[in-house]
User: Fold this.
Amino acid sequence: MKALEPIHHCIDQGIDALNLPGHPENLYAPLRYFMTLGGKRMRPVFTLLSAEMYGISHQDALPGALAIELFHNFTLIHDDMMDHAPLRRGKVTVHERWNNDIALLSGDVLMIKAYEQLSHQKKGPLDQMLELLNKTAIEVCEGQQLDMDFERRSDVQLDEYRTMIRLKTSVLLGCAVEMGAIIGGAHLGDRNALYAFGEHVGMAFQIQDDILDLYAEAHLFGKQVGGDVISNKKTLLNLLAYQHADQTQKVKLEELSNEKDLAKKVLEVRVIYDQIGAKELCEIEMREHHEKALQALKEVSISEEKKKTLYALSDYLLTREN
Assistant:
């Protein structure tokens, strides 16, 4: 979105100004590498847009926004390692380029840097911001553990999956939006509504991620297409397919879970999902969360004019190709 270019520039400048040390090289080089891979930076964007609605400049809300972004990137480094993911944003992941031990420790430093940035946030009550980030950090870890647990289970239910993605993905986006509201001095009603907005956008975003993992164009996606299928990961796409599959399709999907030819596995699973209409079922649920997000944003006691960019960004995220 062109309207967000000044915000992205502000965030990029903030990241450049972190001035990560050069020594020990194996601790900080992975962070310099990972933080320059880019990404959508949507979480800090949401923080800055939320604060802006209450009259706070991007610069004055930047430390809080950077805290969210650094924490998010810490989770990605560790998540990639636990998922054995080879690519992130089209580049080799930290644990693949270095090793697991280095990825673990570098990620830890990034989490500490997140809290360091939050301590630099002058606008807004620090105790409330810390309480929000601490609560969110625990929930994200809970979500990641559930995600890993689900890989070893064959009986994961849809509601369990929805709880997992809310914790692993959505709460951080809710946190990002509410963080901006706290910085802006918003009252509790607005904070709660903005958190709900971010949480539902996060749910819709994750469902879109599930879809893109199998249906994206490889040159646009930046990650391994079909990675969730290859690792037999429980996703909304997968669970809805099983729920609506007939017995023949279920047997075939079970057989494919052990298929060694990975290209064949991805292709044939996609054919079955297409027969079932799993992608369309996911899109229905994604749109439901989008509608709930828009309704929550309407409840915020700020003029609709000031909310326009948040509305536009939530729409844009559901039409992305990566």
